[in-house]
Specification:
Shape of chain A: globular
Shape of chain B: elongated
Helix content of chain B: 55-70%
Low-confidence stretches of chain A: none
Low-confidence stretches of chain B: 1-16, 50-54
Mean pLDDT of chain B: 83
Number of strands of chain B: 12
Strand content of chain B: 5-15%
Oligomer: heterodimer
Distance between the termini of chain A: 20 Å
Mean pLDDT of chain A: 85
Distance between the termini of chain B: 82 Å
Structural class of chain B: alpha/beta
Largest sheet of chain A: 6 strands, antiparallel
Number of strands of chain A: 6
Strand order of the largest sheet of chain A: 1-6-2-3-4-5
Helix content of chain A: 10-25%
Structural class of chain A: alpha+beta
């Protein structure tokens, strides 16, 4: 499932684990095809660099990607796997 | 990423002599300023266009430019053109079926990369394209400089920089539209997806060729092949030929092994590759802004502890505006309708067509006027909401409320319509449009009547005042509101577990940048919604008012029996003799277990059109005449006829029971099906009956 990360030896964690202020990069998204497509249209796809703007440890997460801000539901944030940049 | 070999001339484009009327579709991301541009182009000359079978609305308008009439269609804002949502499908179908002469893609120039993703898909569809780089002022202030001529070559489309809010670039955009429509040899840019994917696309296109004529819509074959590779559900539905399916499946397998991901994700990556390739060559960033203002505001407005109080204050502001400031024009309208009724009564002798006078005064003016007086409130409420939406705050409010709303199975945004419901259910149900998810929206819509609306205050006030001591009146009203909220939460839970089951759709939403709304935009926003309220609820209310009027006026008792009675006693006698009075009496055994008598039952029939009618009906029944000064006398009567328990049961029943006619009409319209309005109507009535029954019967045992 998790691609590219194995060779890099950087810990891959779900987006929900990264505190506000983190600069991270998406490694993989675990979602159905329709949802993956929708996320891609918002700029959230593997290899995209994103910034965590708000993550209070519960509730929705706000990230910045390609100059825009996106709110992700908590459940969604567990399924976006990222590495520290 | 971008291949020069992809540039080629297409043979069969527009005819050589320019057309006198053009159809132009406006596409673009949500928050790209598309609607602002549409409004700037068309002004007030637009109307809502509905397409059969879709609840998504598009706006249409016309604009004349240099002798050419341009029909503009504002497609719903989308991020892409997949089959993922109704909006995207509508946009896609329009582009293919209606063959617009030009598609204008509106982009936020300050956020080009993401916005170009939709443009890339329009390029794939090979449509005549003009790119409107909106918000060029913002882009400029961020230090972005574009090499537009080079970009036009790379993207194969005319580019017009503009600032729609100030009307800058409108003329140039229309020029570009007209020129693009007249262009004969349009260059088609092909996005390169890389050798492996291109090979598979060629292969699929090859097997598709024999079936090209059988395709239901006129899409380019290359595009159909691409969509098949992407696993687009709609396009897959057109193709059942085993050889094509087998070829697509094989391509899928091969690409999955090469890229270790679904082909559509690889394709998406390549689109972004194409975009960033084009952007790298043509965009220069002269200033490096690290923290923009919007980030700073967000840290305050979405703050863990500050966010909620700020939200509460803003909401209070909206409500204050709606109900306090709105009370003045409401009073004027109310006085106007009373005056109008009096004028007609005075100048229209009862002897000539007395029944028609009664129909006009009591039925039409009483009924329709009763709805029209809410128009100022509704316009102000929509103004407040438009302001919060246009500034970008609404998305933040949704974020703040989400943690609370999530617990009851709804998204944060549902909070906004529910809050409006305390004012009036009609605009509240219309406000559910801000919810993208249909199940979420339906659930919210169906329970909104449980948010006790302003019209019901009149009922609570009179019963609480008549039957409860001073110190209990406040708590009783409060209790009714709380019961409404608790029941709403319960109903949502029930609906989400039964009829509206289904996993909670993963929540993803763009947080729009903060913007200063324009007066014109706010006015158009407010008026569009206000007009819908007037038109739809107004026609239904008119019809039902006439029916209700007939039911409380006919059949009339013989004239002899009314002789010598005072005018209020005459009213009482007419009502008792009328259809409504008879139904009320007939209903008595049905409502007796709830502690109600025929008088309450008759008043409830009136309340089914508009809740506030309940009190005026009771006044007539007690032969007090239909005037507000009689409130105290009515309280006396209620005190002698009913126990506090019965009074509480009336309040409870009125809280829960069937919503008013306007609400039913609006639920029907907004849900797109009668069955949801029927479910709301009968479901709430049954719930009201059940709960009131339990409360009354239990109460009788205790007291």
């Amino acid at each position: 499932m998790i691609r590219k990360s194995m060779t890099e030896h950087i810990p891959v964690r779900p987006l929900s684990d990264f505190p506000a202020g983190s600069r991270i990069r998406i490694v993989d998204i675990e979602a159905g095809r329709g949802l993956k497509n929708r996320l891609a249209s918002l700029g959230l796809l593997p290899d995209a660099p994103i910034g965590v703007i708000r993550n209070d440890g519960a509730g929705q997460v706000i990230v910045s990607v390609k100059n825009s801000k996106i709110i992700l539901g908590r459940g969604m944030s567990h399924k976006v796997f990222c590495v520290q940049q | 990423m971008f291949s020069n070999s992809g540039l080629r001339a297409e043979n069969d484009v527009n005819p050589s002599n320019p057309k006198q009327t053009l159809t132009v579709a406006l596409a673009g991301n949500p928050n790209s300023g598309k609607t602002t541009l549409f409004n700037a182009l068309t002004g007030a000359r637009h109307h809502v266009a509905n397409y059969p079978g879709v609840t998504v609305e598009t706006m249409e308008g016309t604009v004349r430019h240099k002798g050419i009439e341009i029909r503009l269609v504002d497609l719903p804002g989308t991020y892409s053109l997949t089959a993922y949502s109704e909006e995207e499908l509508l946009a896609r179908h329009f582009i293919v079926e209606q063959h617009p002469d030009v598609v204008v893609d509106v982009l936020d120039a300050s956020n080009l990369e993401r916005n170009l993703y939709l443009a890339a898909q329009l390029i794939e569809m090979q449509v005549p394209l003009v790119l409107a780089f909106n918000m060029s002022d913002v882009a400029h202030s961020r230090g972005l400089e574009f090499d537009l001529p080079q970009m036009e070559i790379l993207l194969g489309a005319r580019i017009v920089p503009m600032t729609a809010t100030r009307g800058e670039g409108i003329e140039q955009l229309l020029d570009a539209v007209v020129q693009t429509a007249a262009q004969e040899n349009r260059r088609i840019v092909a996005i390169s997806y890389g050798r492996e994917i291109e090979q598979e696309l060629d292969g699929i296109e090859e097997v598709l060729k024999p079936y090209a004529s059988a395709l239901p819509r006129r899409y380019p074959l290359r595009w159909v092949a691409l969509k098949l590779l992407e696993g687009d559900q709609e396009v897959q539905g057109w193709i059942s030929q085993p050889d094509v399916c087998g070829r697509v499946e094989a391509a899928h397998q091969r690409l999955r092994t090469i890229f270790r991901d679904h082909p559509e994700i690889t394709v998406a990556e390549r689109r972004y590759g194409f975009i960033s390739g084009a952007c790298q060559e043509t965009i220069k960033s002269t200033v490096q802004i690290r923290h923009d203002f919007s980030d700073w505001i967000d840290t305050v407005l979405t703050h863990r502890y500050l966010g909620l109080p700020i939200f509460a204050v803003l909401m209070f502001g909206v409500f204050y505006l709606t109900f306090r400031v709105g009370a003045w024009p409401m009073g004027w309208l109310e006085r106007f309708f009373v005056w109008l009724g009096v004028q007609i009564t005075q100048h229209w002798p009862l002897e000539s067509y007395g029944w028609l006078r009664s129909l006009v005064v009591d039925g039409v003016i009483g009924g329709v006027g009763g709805v029209l007086i809410f128009l100022p409130n509704i316009l102000l409420l929509f103004l407040g909401i438009a302001f919060l939406e246009d500034t970008g705050y609404m998305a933040r409010a949704a974020f703040i409320m989400d943690r609370i709303m999530h617990k009851i199975g709804l998204h944060g945004k549902s909070f906004i319509p529910m809050l409006i419901g305390f004012g009036c259910s009609v605009p509240a149900i219309m406000a559910t449009r801000i919810l993208e998810n249909r199940r979420n929206r339906l659930a919210t819509m169906l329970v909104i009547p449980l948010m006790s609306c302003g019209a019901r205050i009149a009922i609570y006030a009179i019963f609480a005042a008549a039957l409860f001591p001073d110190y209990l009146r406040g708590p009783m009203m409060w209790l009714i509101y709380v019961i409404g909220i608790v029941l709403a939460i319960g109903c949502i839970q029930l609906l989400r577990r039964t009829l509206l089951k289904g996993e909670t759709i993963p929540f993803v939403m763009e947080l729009p940048p903060y913007r200063l709304p324009t007066l014109k935009g706010l006015a158009i926003h407010m008026w569009d919604r206000g007009w819908m309220y007037l038109k739809k609820a107004g026609t239904i209310i008119l019809a039902l008012s006439i029916i209700l009027w007939a039911a409380i006026s006919y059949p009339q008792p013989p004239a002899a029996s009314l002789e010598g009675l005072s005018s209020s006693s005459q009213q009482q006698a007419v009502l008792q003799y009328s259809l409504a009075g008879r139904i009320g009496k007939a209903l008595e055994p049905v409502v007796a277990p709830l502690g109600f008598d025929w008088k309450i039952a008759t008043a409830l029939i009136g309340a089914s059109v508009a809740k506030e009618v309940f009190v005026s009906q009771l006044s007539i029944i007690y032969a007090l005449g239909d005037t507000a000064e009689n409130a105290e006398a009515l309280e006396e009567h209620l005190r002698s006829d009913y126990t506090p328990l019965q009074g509480f049961c009336v309040m409870l029943f009125c809280l829960i029971t069937a919503p008013c006619a306007a609400t039913v009409a609006v639920t029907c319209r907004e849900s797109g099906a009668w069955k949801w309005a029927a479910l709301q109507y009968f479901g709430l009535t049954a719930l009201a009956y059940g709960i009131t029954f339990i409360v009354y019967q239990t109460g009788r045992l205790i007291f």
